[in-house]
Amino acid sequence: MYGLPGGCFQGPLGRPDLATEALPSRRQRFIIVGGADAEVIALNEMAFERLPGPKSLSIVPGAGHLFSEPGALEEAIDRAASWFECYLNGKR
Fold first, then answer.
1. Whole-angstrom Cα distance, residue 16 to residue 46?
2. Considering the entire predicted model, what is its pTM?
3. d(CA 90, CA 87)
4. Residues 6+ apart with CB under 8 A from 66
């Protein structure tokens, strides 16, 4: 996870399932995962349920762990950019 003032962004190599207890409870969180990565989806869904505070989980259909499929990385970037726009503008 990448720390931001008051929020966190979960990238493809993060493990929120290992960090949920250590994260401050009031931080906003965005987790993004590839839809073809069943094991990682399961870990992220378990972590998502345990994370307190405002949160969002986004699953990119057909994307693997590193978003290397055609168009997958662009979709992940678009979703992350939308989250940052809302988050940084205080709309969430």
1. 9
2. 0.73
3. 5
4. 12, 34
Residues 6+ apart with CB under 8 A from 27: 6, 7, 8, 53
**Residue 17 has what DSSP assignment?**
H
Distances from the Cα of 47 to the Cα of 32, 77, 78, angstroms: 12, 22, 23
Residue 87: strand, helix, or coil: helix
Q: What is the pLDDT of residues 59-80, one digit of tens each?
A: 999 999 889 999 999 999 999 8
State the Cα–Cα distance between residues 59 and 88, nearest whole angstrom.
21
Supply 43's token pair: 């870990």
